[in-house]
Each structure stands twice: as structure tokens, then as C-alpha cells.
Predict the structure.
Amino acid sequence: MSVRVALLGLVAVGLAASPAHAELSAAQARYDRDGSGALEAAEAPPAVALYFKEADVDGSGGLDRAELDGLARQLTLPRKGTPDPALKDFLEGKQGFAAIDAFMEKLVADLPLEGAGIFVARGGKLAHQATFGIYDPDTVVPIASASKWLAAATVMSVVEEGLLDLDTPISAYWDEATGEGGTMTLRTMLSHTAGTGSSHLADQPRSFTLEESARGALALPRVGKPGEKFQYGGVSLQIAGYLATRATGKTWAELFQERIAGPLGMSNTWFGFAQKPEPRGEITNPILAAGVYSSLADYSHFLAMLAADGVYEGRQVLKKSTIDEMAHDYTGRSATLGQRTSVGDPRGYGFGEWCDEFGSGDACLVVNSGGAFGVLPRLDRRDGTVILLFVKDRMGPMRPYWTAIIGTAQATLDAAPAGQ
């Protein structure tokens, strides 16, 4: 995350945190240690300290809410320039988590970022976890499209129960779903092949209910027939989530808590509105494809469950068959971000997850659910290797660094003696 975002985070959740922001990152909320209501120079994290003197307009030696707001406004433009190009070659030919940590420390300092985190495990055993900057394992950030994996898993738990079917037209569940939209199925909706558009519904009123949100999503212009082509977005997932609440009589927050967050101990994870934090208990229109706030520790629990074929701490959270169903390409290996094409496109896409490597048929061996804000969760199903990279910036600039870290982490794991 850049300095500008760090400051916005402090304004949102720091000194004079409003009730709407009180539940975000403990790491960000604890800087006003003396309780004065102003951020003193000695309390300022590195990202703020860089601009502390110029932000202290009244020369008091502390930044009050107005001064933090002013500094945040100055730094909201996109970051100009790039970090030292040599940073991209820092890990060339290196192994070891110490090298990765040194790289990430330099990354945080050079970009600069507010913080970053990494979690690596293989076969259910923790190999490495570290945080940098002001982050700790429980620091909460918005994770953008890494939300999709969590949303798909929640919907699939309802499918497991037999309350929804993957291949039944949704008109059977919702009489308002008429015409071509009514012929969509959960299978096409969870895989972004339902013919809905690329919107992530960020322009919807936050005051909507999920039903109103889904109704608005259903009314948006279509881009194709169900099953015809892949179109990445949040429209169909919002509708699928609403159908899950209709089938169970539960709110989305209740569903997620009972079926995923609760069993996995994800106490710092919830669905909200991307980049617009509000009290968890007041959220009525969770954006299912992009609105999750989570932490490194929490999301690592979700990945551990997937790597163990649905089991977490001895409890079967999802069936192995469900994990297999999700990790299957439904796009004919034609999934792409279009004009935002990223390294590796076209790829495959399952339910809430990209397919990076394939096994026999359309089975996905290596999957990820990276988000636009830079969070990248990745799972190699062959050996249960989990790599989670946690940050809040932009995925485009972060991608080459994440690629280098993933390669070094895998090499490090492969070089370790058997059993370690």
C-alpha cells in the first residue's frame, strides 16, 4: 500500500475513529498511545512519518484529525513513478525465507507500502509466516476479488445441503428471474459464464438490501447467453448469494458466519462494501464479489481448509467433492480479464478461483483468487502448498513482485529435507 492509502487508513480507523470504522485494523488503530486525540511524532508509523513535518500545519508537534484529513487529500492521486527496477531482480537465483523477508522489507520501504504479509504452508504444516511495516497477522484490509472464493464456498455449502442445485435454472428459485436471465444456473453464475456483465456493483446504494441489490443486478444489460462465454464481474455472484439466502432463510452474514467464518475461526473477516467500511452489524448490501475485509491469519485458515480437502482442525467444513467441483475449469481455458489482461491469460476459471495449471481434463491443479488491491491467495492442490501474499495496493504493480516471491517460496519448499 502506498503512503496515501496508509494515511487514509489512519484517518478512517485511527485517532478519532468513528463507530463506522471502529472494527478495522487493530494495528492501525493503536497509534494514539497516549490518548491525546492527536498523532504525535513519536507515535507516527513510518508511512506517515515521511510527511509528518509538512502535515503539521500548526507546528504543534502532533497531527489532529483535520491535519490528517488534509494530508490524506494531498496523497490520493495515483502514485507516480516506479520503485527501483533492480528490486524486481532481488530474488533472482535465491532461496530461503530469509531472502524473501529481506525482499518484502525492501518492497515495503521502496514502494512505499503501509505493510505486507506472507503465509506459506505445505501439506498442512506451516513453513513460514511474517509481516512487515505496520501489519501484524490480524491487520484487516479490504481484499477485493479475493472475496469471490469465500462467496463461492458459502454458496456451495448451501448446494451441499441440497437446498440449491448447480444446474437448475434460477427461475425455479426466484419468480422474478424471467426471460434469458431466468435460464442462468448456479454453475454458470459461480464461474462467470452466465452472460452477465463486468460490473462489481460498486455504484449501488449501500442502503440496499441484498434482495434489492440482486434485483438490480438481474436487470443489468446482458452480454451473452448462459454458458456462452466468460465475463469476469460481480453481477451473477450477487444473485447467487441472494438465492442462497432465500433457500436458507438466513441473512448473508449469518450464512457466512455459520458455514465458513465460524468453523474456520475467521473472527476478523466479513462481507461489506469495498473500500467503504461500515459497522458489521449495519451492513445490508454486502458486495459478494469484492467486499470482504479480512486478515492474513483469517484467510490462511480458509486456504488450509481447501488444501485439506475441506477439513479444518478435524471438522469437515466442505466436502472434498465440493472442493473438486470448485477447482474445475468451466470456461474452456478461455478465461481472461480482457483489457486488463494479466500475466498468464487466458486461463481457466472455476467457482471463485482462477485455474493456473491443469491436470487431466478440466481439473485445476493450481488455483488462485487474486484481488485488485493486491491480496493473492494461491493453492497447489498436488501437494497442498498454500502461499498467501497480503497487502493493500494495486495488483498490477504488485504482480511481478508476487511472481518472484512465489517462485522463491516454491524453490525453498522443494529444497527442504523430506518431512520438514
Residues 1-30, 73-82 have pLDDT under 50 and may be disordered. The chain has 14 helices and 14 strands. The domain at 140-415 is CATH 3.40.710.10 (Beta-lactamase).
